[in-house]
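Ops channel
N.P.: pipeline sanity check, posting one input/output pair.
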């Protein structure tokens, strides 16, 4: 079959209503008939992905059989709870708040993270500094592996940045991942007490590029937007009536104490560009054709695809189910 000519609009959904109806029908088939559960639990954060998943769950199961769970901790933005409550009210869903700071403190989440930060910045004090890690965007088109940095910001807004050594990077990420795994545990508590299914919220990029925590936000019973690009998720949000303030909100990690966008932390590109490039990458379009449509050079697109392939390979572990065949039976 001939592929469509590549364009900036190639990923836009032609019929959003049909897509929504198909997703809702599959959610009903999977949850109500196959899993024999009677509703869904959604962790809501004020972000567009979780908001669309909540709206889809309401269409699939009805508002009385959907529970929204807010899962803040001491590093969370207060805007997240406000937006999540507004969302739940808009769709007539019960929303409850589960504060997970104490659980994270019990795991040593903050202590373990701060220990690694202090190895890079001995002056770091979490009482007076904020912190975040990120990837240099400049390396995306260079064919080189990503370079991670650590930034600390004092109370006056002055920042310092250093290259983040691999051991400290791994420790910070491992400690931070307690957050997503704790949230997953709480969602399953409520799902099991209500005989509901956990509705996962990752989109296509998060799934395929590995921007999720294994058995954390990657742990769910269904993932209704797992095959949708962020641009397509935005189309669904408009159709479903997700509040405009959520649709227009810049996607953030809401993980570290300093504010940080998903682009800065992981994707290195705005999602509107990322969607188009990734579509070309996974559908086998020639770099030259993509470059012409995007006003880029073929060489830069080739380098971008090398980085995409590297990211898929290095995160494949996250998408791998437990290995069971050890006896050849």
């Amino acid at each position: 079959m001939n592929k469509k000519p590549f364009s900036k609009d190639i990923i836009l959904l032609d019929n959003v209503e049909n897509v929504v109806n198909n997703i809702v029908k599959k959610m009903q088939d999977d949850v109500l008939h196959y899993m024999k559960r009677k509703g869904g639990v959604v962790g809501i954060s004020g972000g567009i992905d979780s908001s669309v998943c909540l709206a889809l769950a309401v269409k699939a199961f009805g508002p009385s059989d959907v529970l929204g769970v807010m899962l803040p901790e001491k590093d969370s933005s207060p805007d997240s709870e406000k937006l999540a409550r507004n969302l739940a009210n808009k769709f007539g869903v019960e929303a409850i708040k589960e504060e997970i700071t104490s659980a994270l403190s019990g795991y040593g989440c903050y202590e373990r993270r701060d220990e690694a930060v202090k190895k890079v910045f001995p002056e770091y004090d979490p009482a007076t500094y904020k912190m975040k890690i990120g990837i240099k965007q400049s390396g995306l088109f260079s064919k080189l592996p990503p370079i991670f940095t650590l930034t600390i910001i004092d109370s006056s807004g002055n920042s310092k940045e250093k290259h983040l050594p691999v051991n400290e990077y791994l420790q910070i990420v491992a400690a931070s991942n307690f957050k997503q795994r704790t949230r997953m545990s709480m969602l399953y508590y409520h799902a099991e007490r209500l005989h509901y299914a956990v509705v996962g919220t990752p989109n296509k990029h998060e799934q395929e590029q590995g921007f999720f925590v294994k058995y954390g936000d990657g742990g769910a019973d269904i993932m209704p937007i797992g095959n949708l690009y962020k641009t397509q998720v935005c189309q669904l949000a408009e159709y479903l009536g997700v509040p405009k303030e959520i649709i227009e909100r810049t996607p953030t990690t809401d993980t570290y104490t300093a504010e940080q966008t998903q682009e800065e932390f992981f994707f290195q590109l705005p999602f509107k560009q990322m969607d188009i490039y990734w579509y070309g990458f996974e559908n086998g379009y020639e770099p030259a054709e993509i470059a012409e449509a995007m006003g880029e050079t073929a060489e830069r697109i080739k380098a971008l695809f090398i980085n995409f392939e590297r990211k898929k390979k290095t995160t494949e572990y996250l998408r791998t189910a437990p290995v069971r065949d050890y006896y050849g039976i």
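N.P.: looks fine end to end. Residues 16-102+174-265 form a domain with the Rossmann fold fold (CATH 3.40.50.620).
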